[in-house]
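Example with several molecule types.
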Amino acid sequence: MNWNSKDLDTYFQQKEYIDTLLVPLLKIDTTPEQLKASTSSTEFLMHLSNFIETQFKGRMMVMPPFTYTQSTSLNEMGEVLQKDLQQLEFKHIFYLTTDREWTDVETYGEMIWIPSIPLESMDKQLRQTIIEDQLRQVLPTLTKKWTGE
Amino acid sequence: MSKNRVSRRQFLSYTIMGVGGFMASGTIMPMLRFAVDPVLQKEGEGDFTATPQKVDELTETPVRVDYTIVDREDGWYKSDESYSAWVYKEGDKVIALSPVCKHLGCTVNWGGDKNHPDQFFCPCHDGRYYKNGDNVKGTPPIGPLDEYLVMEKDGYVYLGGTTPNTLV
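Resulting structure tokens for the full complex:
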């Protein structure tokens, strides 16, 4: 499910089945030498979260990415997210990010950190394969949570 | 002077008839054209899209075939859209099933469940389907997987739109 009103209606009807929230955390780095890397990881994260959405449409609500710049205090942001996202009635919350710093921050839910891969120079076929490989990396984390309880 | 001189009156009436006729045909011709349009339509291939899958490489085990519809137009917005299908052969017939789970729309995989290697499996809520797309009773899906219209051309598989499953 995407975060739009049509999918939200489905969510209300099928609440028992859609029990997982995926929150992409997206870092925009505005320092000149990081711009290129920042756009590249944005693309990667967006591709990956879209792909996860099509694969797990019926169980996952994928939020629009939460975007922040490099000076944002992650501890503070994590605290706010923790407080607010808990109000949603999702059994599982996953965060998806390419920003390593999140691994040190305590959040409510599971943090999935995946290093960014520059997709822009690849052709479509290869890009698809890479994204699928990355999903395979993420999959155990998801299924472990899903079957663990 | 010839005998059949055209009088001024005749000349004018011919001219008016000519111009009037021309104008009338301007409105009537398109109407006729629209009325018989279905007959003039060329026998096309419809909306079939080429896939990279060769027909003779197919076996009885479903394989995933990815294909892209290039320049799909949605209003003024043009985009390439990627689709997948599970394709296999049954006898000489090529069968292509949609990977979209009938429960809530996740993507199903062939043999995704270790305990049921010859069934389609939906990872979201453990939905299962038999090879012909029929949903396994007792799992969440409420209907069989959709089928793609299939065409073979130059040794490759071409896929069209989805239809309700005809194999079940």
